[in-house]
Specification:
With 93 residues, the protein is α/β, with parallel strands linked by helices. It has one domain. It is built from three helices and five strands.
Length: 93
Amino acid sequence: MKIEIKKCGDLLASHQAGREAYLALQSYSLNGLPKDELIEINFEGVKAITPSWADEVVTKIFQEFENVKLLNTENSTVQATLETPKEYSGLKI
């Protein structure tokens, strides 16, 4: 399963927006997938993302699935933001 984060927008901010994005993903894309399903999170086209948004989406996907891969994380704001959930969640993001 490949998740195109840009479909959520190119400027991703706030817990509320992240929560809504995760609930939509869970309802339409992730629901019923086996825990060992490969989940590819593609950040192509994302200009900026906040730690609060990433915590609501990325951290929860890492908690739910065993095989998650991040794609197109070269953007400096994406890289910096992904450090926060990595540091505080204890997950191997």
